[in-house]
Amino acid sequence: MFAIIHPYIRDLAWSGDLFPDWSMCSLPVAGKPLSEYAIDLCSILHAEKVLLCDFSYNTHFNKTLSMGNRWPMPVNYIGTQAYETISLLLKHNHAFLNNEDTLIFWGALLPDIISPEEAFGDLEPQEPTESLPLGVYLKRNGTLYHCRSIHIHPVETLLDYFNLNFDMLEDNRGHVLPGYSNENKVYTGMNVAIMQNATVSAPVMLCDDVCLNRGCSLSDGVIVGRNVMIDSETQLKHSIVLDYTYVAQDMIFKNKIITSDRIIDPYSEAYLSQEDLDLAMDMRRFGRIDWYKFVEYIFALLLCLVFAIPYLLLLPWIPLLKRGFWYRKLSLDRYPLCLKVLINKARLVRFFPEDDVFVFRASDILPIEHSSEQQELDDILYRHNRSLLLIIKIILKGLINRVLDNGRA
């Protein structure tokens, strides 16, 4: 038996509008991509291979699916169009299915885990050319059946999605949720740091690489994705924080979905962008002198003086040196950028997302190369916690790490 997963049978414009970095297949439910719940059931039902059809193909998700032998059968992930009927879906993928018996996950849904004996115990014949409701179907010996024994949870609206997250947190329906520890409905992943005076109340899920700063509070059901920092004194109640997100200090969020660039109300589908929130915070400082810009100017001037002699001495050979190892290792490539800082054409340390020209960024403080998502998260953290000492540390560490770490050279 083969299996095919096809979420896009209804208008799911809300998913693309509100979560542009995610597809319906990769959108996490209780810390796990929605489509992986169906794949897990395929494994239990002994499917030989799975075809995952995504209207909004996600390259990063494809890499995640390809990591290791997570399932006993191969999973093929493809970009495809939305189909109105199951017959059209099967016709356009006949080369993959090869007329084998096929399990069909029709629509954006999350199925409960069920045994093979129970799953196919109540089959109702259907007409594949008709518009059918969400559900799990089986094409066997040329006939299409509705698998009525497989209970599903539809995800047709944003509110469906929001509520399903907390439903899974309360009752996992036989599925394995992420995290290496689960004690009294407190799920924790790897590398979770909970600072002094931070409080966590069940049910809660903290995925990998999460930091809860001093005095923050999580209650009434909270799900925190991977690579997330919740800053000090922030309160989260019945909310979801998606991957690669920084939540600023002294904030209070209730019944919200928080992503790296927006805060979403699941009841109205309205959202506030993080940039708008940053602008509102900056307006409190309107009219004050931007001392940090002056400090960056001074540091850029000092760096120009330091780099001027070696750069000018090597100027005739710069085109040749640019291809070599030491040009970047000694940060000579940063000299022209420092000059741009002096004429207000660049930032010394990247501050806003639109700062395309900069000398350093917050991630330079660490000796390892970060992913682009983590770099954006580090930039947000710097924007909310900028200080003179932090600027100095980023500059010095950025220069030293280039020299010591071959990966940065």
CATH fold-level assignment of the largest domain? Spore Coat Polysaccharide Biosynthesis Protein SpsA, Chain A
Tell how many strands the DSSP assignment holds: 27
Query: Radius of gyration in whole Å, from Cα?
Result: 26 Å
Shape: elongated
In terms of per-residue confidence, which ranges show pLDDT below 50 for 5 or more consecutive residues? 279-288
Counting helices, strands and paired strands, the structural category is: alpha/beta
| Straight-line distance between termini | 51 Å
CATH class of the largest domain: Alpha Beta
The main β sheet shows up as:
10 strands, mixed
- The second-level CATH architecture of the largest domain is Alpha-Beta Complex
CATH superfamily of the largest domain: Spore Coat Polysaccharide Biosynthesis Protein SpsA, Chain A
Q: How many domains would you count in the coordinates? A: 3
Instruction: Give the helix level as a range of percent.
Output: 25-40%
Strand-residue fraction? Answer: 15-25%
Mean pLDDT: 88
Explain what the structure shows.
This protein is of the alpha/beta class and 409 residues long. 32% of the residues lie in helices and 25% in strands. The chain has three domains: 2-154, Spore Coat Polysaccharide Biosynthesis Protein SpsA, Chain A, CATH 3.90.550; 180-283, no CATH class; 291-408, no CATH class. Helix 9 crosses helix 12. The longest helix is centred in the last third of the chain and has 23 residues, at 291-313.
